[in-house]
Amino acid sequence: MNNEILVAENVTKIYGIDTKNPVTALSDVSLTMYESDFICVMGPSGSGKSTFINNLSTIDIPTKGKVFINGQEVRTMGENEVGKFRYENLGFIFQEFNLLESLTIFENIAVPLTLSHVPLEEVKQRVQVIAKKLGVDELLDKYPSECSGGQRQRASIARALVTNPKLIVADEPTGNLDSKNSHDLLELFKRLNEEEGVSILMVTHDSMIASYSQKLLYIKDGQIAETIERKDLTQKEYFYKIVDVNSTESQKLFID
Ligand code: ADP
């Protein structure tokens, strides 16, 4: 059995808890993620997917419950410590690439290392290695505005991976990509997952993208309503199972 990388115990998130209209966006959710897990999160709009991923990955702190990453309880860390912990342990990939326009691609990719005070020679070497892996090594002197959408996304992924995180957290990472770039990104995730044992927790609304994962969590009304494991299914068989869950769950919305 692989090591536990992320443990969430009875996590609840209530927005506006001190107001007249509190919203329970996540309700008593538990999850154990092991090294090399590739988990995908789906569910209707407003079901709590972003809240789930944010509260499990240090971006937000749950109202109730505990989250441990690499054995460390997130709530017990101070603000500075969480920031450092994030750079050292997690790689975030979002729909918006969030590159800093005033920095070159090299400088953007180097940000997490610079913030961790890694010596310049090592920064140069590590940026080169990851940039080559993502095919952006020719773009290092360019600014984001001089790059295409796919190139910008690859640069933002290089920035997420330059610290060699054990866990990648991705919220709709293909939201702004065309289908070729989306599949290239998922092939990269698959390679990192299978060959380097990187764990991935990803939100998507696209069943085809979800079919690259090994496990699907279907979130409904702030809870994990269904879990599907790929096991020995082919990607195509798993894809059809994912489509089926989405369509069955959508139909229930009509009946309810
Ligand atoms: P999803 O990602 O599945 O679309 P979210 O996690 O964004 O769902 O939202 C879950 C629920 O929590 C929704 O009802 C949403 O309106 C509510 N919500 C999300 N963020 C906030 C917030 N900052 N303040 C108040 N309510 C919020």
From TrEMBL:
CDD domains: ABC_MJ0796_LolCDE_FtsE (cd03255). SUPFAM superfamilies: P-loop containing nucleoside triphosphate hydrolases (SSF52540). It comes from the Bacteria. The keyword Plastid does not apply. Residues 6-246 form the ABC transporter domain. InterPro entries: AAA+_ATPase, ABC_transporter-like_ATP-bd, ABC_transporter-like_CS, MacB-like_ATP-bd, P-loop_NTPase. The keyword Phosphoprotein does not apply. GO terms for molecular function: ATP binding; ATP hydrolysis activity; transmembrane transporter activity. One of its GO terms (cellular component) is membrane protein complex. Keywords: ATP-binding, Nucleotide-binding, Transport. Pfam families: ABC_tran (PF00005). Belongs to the ABC transporter superfamily. This is ABC transporter.
